[in-house]
């Protein structure tokens, strides 16, 4: 008498589970990279919005930049943005208000935005260190 079993063997199940595990780890690694890029894009966008608000402030206040970033809200920007993980952007008014340094720390140290970033330590006497991974802008 023959006994036929209609099911999967333990080895077959283990192979399928291993393949699913490998595929899911590849997908999760890709998702983390995409999330980092998304957060960095938001940081760069926030910096550009803050730059615009600072220029509007400069035009309306005797050609000087504010001593504190909070001074541009709510007249020139509705709310001072914070980073996607709740971190604040660095700001310093330098040269008696005639210039500023605005900085955000990015997660991707090889981002193309660093090609146009201000670099150096204590830029303009601001106390802000502008080197990878810190993206800095000036007017």
Your description of this structure?
It is a single chain. By secondary structure, this protein is α+β, with helices and mostly antiparallel strands. The model has no long low-confidence stretch (mean pLDDT 88). Strands 1-2-3 form a 3-stranded antiparallel sheet, with helices on one face. Strand 1 and strand 2 (99-105) form a beta hairpin. Helices cover 37% and strands 12% of the residues. The chain has 1 helix and 3 strands; from the N terminus they run αβββ. The protein has a single domain (10-137), classed as Glycoprotein, Type 4 Pilin (2-Layer Sandwich). It is elongated, with a radius of gyration of 25 Å. It holds the Pfam family N_methyl. InterPro entries: Bac_GSPG_pilin (IPR000983), N_methyl_site (IPR012902), Pilin-like (IPR045584). It is found in: Membrane.
């Amino acid at each position: 008498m023959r006994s036929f079993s209609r099911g999967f063997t333990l080895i077959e199940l283990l192979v399928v589970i291993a393949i699913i595990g490998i595929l899911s780890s590849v997908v999760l690694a890709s998702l983390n990279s995409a999330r980092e890029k998304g957060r960095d894009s938001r940081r760069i966008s926030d910096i550009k919005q803050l730059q615009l608000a600072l220029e509007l402030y400069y035009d309306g206040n005797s050609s000087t930049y504010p001593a504190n970033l909070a001074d541009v809200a709510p007249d020139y920007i509705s709310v001072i943005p914070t980073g996607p993980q709740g971190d604040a952007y660095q700001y310093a008014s330098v040269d008696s208000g005639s210039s500023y340094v605005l900085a955000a720390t990015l997660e991707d140290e090889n981002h193309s935005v660093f090609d146009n970033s201000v670099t150096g330590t204590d830029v303009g006497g601001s106390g802000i260190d502008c080197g990878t991974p810190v993206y800095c802008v000036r007017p």
